[in-house]
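Memo to structure team: turn this sequence into structure tokens by end of day. - J.P.
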Amino acid sequence: MTRKFFDREKELKILNEIWDSDRFEFMIIYGRRRVGKTDLIKKFCKNKKSIYYLCSKRKMQYNLKKFSEKVCDFIGIPPVVFGSFQEAFDALLKNNRKIVIAIDEFSYLIKRDSGILSDFQEIVDEKLKDKNVKLILCGSSIGMMESRVLGSGSPLYGRSTRQLRLRPFTIEDTMKWFPHINIEETVRIYSVTGGVAKYLEFFSGKNVAEEIKNRFFDPSSFLFSDALYLLSEELRDYSTYMQILEAISLGHTKINEIGNYSFVQPKDVFFYLKNLSSLGIVKRIVPVLSPRKAKRGIYTIDDNYFNFWFRFVSPFQAEIESFDEEIAMKNFKRNFNTYLGGIFEKLCFGFLKSLNLINYTKIGRWWHKDREIDIVALNEQKKEILFAECKWKEEVNAERVFKELKEKAGYVQWNDGRRKEHYAIFARSFRNKDVDGIKLFDLKDLENLEIKM
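Reply from structure team:
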């Protein structure tokens, strides 16, 4: 495993702009676990007057004691335990100097005592607003940070000067992480890591198939156990959530299907899905031309790590834990390419944005009954529409796919007879790329593309 700090130039630029300002700045950073928030903050704090504290899941008194130790060490006084966080900040601010105060995993404090939000409201309003201090509060519980810290009902609402949701690296970033391998192998790594920095560190790219086997189908490995750890950290009764995620990963994407597979009443499924959505794990999608609240919506796992884990590891968890991974590996070898087809389809949305084939105002999947089109993009002002298919296959017969795509496009009811139509196919490779009336893109075309996700 190779440990390194990679990229994050845009995020560091934002943080350095905060440092360069001559007034109080209050930055909120949040994002899923393992994405690199702590490394980003520590990289920013390097060579600056700063105090960094990582909150513990223990009682509030314990966190106040440990924070007090940090403060005393920073200002050079004998150790004392302050009576409150307000008192600790008073001590920090006695010397009116430019500093960064970073509190990581702030959501742990909120879980222990929601009154901490009011305490920090007082700290921000009464103690910091006229100081050249840069306060950073960071958390991994996305739903909690968005609702309890950033939400309109929060005591801290409207007080942050900047906020940043740190997201996993894109496929383009992942290609830069592994500059020595081709795009096909990069897609394989991205399909199981989702560009999460911590997970990328477990890959070298030298033999991706073997690395996936060793990282996911070995009960002692980090990537085998982390899915269970993350769910148990965030959710009560996480066994039910596991059943629901396994259901979705295996293709049961409608409420009734999910409920039947998970042994959960359909009327109760939505509660679980809402929580999974707040964590950024699950996403609901509807056909591109349907209203957002349409009943035809389906659920997908939006996080590639969880998607892979529940598709290939979860159904065989007991066998893998008993070091009998043979059946799991057979399933992986048989179905991994099909799984990659879904990942490739998601990536093609980013490829399409970069190719500028259409200046679209709306984009998404389309389906009706037994017909489905991978990508439909609309320019509603110009009445232009693009239809695209994504094939994770070699030697694709573009003429046949084009014919089928045009036939399905005829069922898409939007500005019929008045629209301008465009067509595209993405594939690993084609038998023949000289086909009139359609744009064709293989992996070689996409490898050097500057991708906008």
